[in-house]
Amino acid sequence: MMDLSVYYFACPWVIFRGWYNGRQAGCVVKCVLFVPTNAYAHGWMIFIKVSWSLGVVAGIGCVGIGFTALFYWFVSWEDDFKEEKHPFWSYVYGALSSVLGAIAIVHVEMTIKMNHITFPDTHITDSGQVIALLIGVFTLFTAFASSVKTFGDFLA
User: What span, in angstroms and rounded, lies between the C-alpha atoms of 76 and 74?
Assistant: First the structure.
């Protein structure tokens, strides 16, 4: 939650100060959410400025939830750990995170495809590509294994 709050707090700076950094005359960047949208269109900019500014409130909420979770974690700390059932909301949060993560991946990949962004000097054997691939594979594996175990505990 604390990491998410950093994102929410940084969003207004990006939109008000850094959105046009590197933009050249005649540059049109299309972002794909569900339909291709010009990232510099007036209506889109108003929507982004308002929604990301309201995101600061979400950031404050994330900080509050993060500190509350830490507080309850410290208060309920026991010397001997016992296995507990996961609450219902952890399943909802996990499912929501998975769906939003999938939408984010599709959004980035479609934006790259729509804008014809290529990296001609990059090969899969470059260290930057291999490291990202390994992190992605191991993260996917651990998330899948955790989901299977958690879902199995939920059914039991």
Answer: 6
3-class DSSP assignment, residue 44: helix
Helix (H, G, I), strand (E, B), or coil: what is residue 30?
strand
Cα–Cα dist 49/98, whole Å: 26
Q: Which two tokens stand for residue 7?
A: 């994102």
Residues 29, 115 contacting (CB under 8 angstroms):
yes
Distance CA 61, CA 27 (A): 36
Number of other residues whose CB lies within 10 A of the CB of residue 4: 15
Q: Which stretches of the chain drop beneath a pLDDT of 70? A: 1-4, 32-33, 76-87, 89-90, 150-156
| Interior angle at CA 23, CA 119 and CA 114, nearest 5 | 45
Cβ neighbours of residue 114 closer than 8 Å, sequence gap 6 or more: 30, 31, 32, 36
- Contacting residues for 6 by C-beta, under 8 A, at least 6 apart: 59
Q: Give per-residue pLDDT as tens, 60-80.
A: 888 888 788 778 777 766 555
